């Protein structure tokens, strides 16, 4: 019996190495292109005013003006607190209502369930501009104009996207868990709260992150429904930095940098759950 020695070339590159290099270089190029505005914003926030729009542009400031952040931050605290309040209300109540609706559409049997779900999804195709005027007139009759109610109550009572994602997530949970809970005497709400809801934490994190960013970046809602400066949010505060005849661009960029920090930190901390939740929500149709 003879044995043959296998010779493996040590210096031979992997078969797909050139392709991977091209893909990596392409992705790196687009990453740099998309990061350029962000880098310019941070750079401009640290420059003196006369260097922000100079030609040719420079990314590295001649002197780092950290005082720009303290000047831009003066007076931003009320706007920041309003944004935090609205984001917390939107995230908390939307997760509550969307999870209940998603569980109902995924697990409970009732008449015309599929039709009701189709009608719910169809409402997402109606542009918000169509019902803006009737909505404003309704809120005016209810006394909600110049209050925070229009900025969170309609959102949490119509959680179409959140309901869809959480329905898909609940449908991906094995039926055996729910059946075992029922055999142990758990009620429908007890099964939902103690058994099913912990199984879809990644989907909850994804919906919560998307809701937070939507509320935090909302400019149109406060612009339409709020009149008092004390009730305005961070996007409106950024618009106030733009004067009629003169704009301090470096202070505006410093304020913009401060504004994006909360959603950026949230995404970095919840990135794992965000991606996992989006993936999990699409496993079962």
Automatic annotation (TrEMBL):
Protein species of origin: Kribbella steppae
TM regions (residue ranges): 21-42, 86-105, 117-137, 149-166, 203-225, 245-270
PANTHER family: ABC TRANSPORTER PERMEASE PROTEIN MG189-RELATED, ABC TRANSPORTER PERMEASE PROTEIN MG189-RELATED-RELATED
UniProt keyword Manganese, yes or no: no
Highest taxon above the source species: Bacteria
Protein name: Multiple sugar transport system permease protein
InterPro entries per the UniProt record, alphabetical: MetI-like, MetI-like_sf
PROSITE patterns: ABC_TM1
Entry-linked CDD domains: TM_PBP2
Residue ranges constituting the ABC transmembrane type-1 domain according to the UniProt record: 80-270
Signal sequence coordinates: none
Record localization: Cell membrane
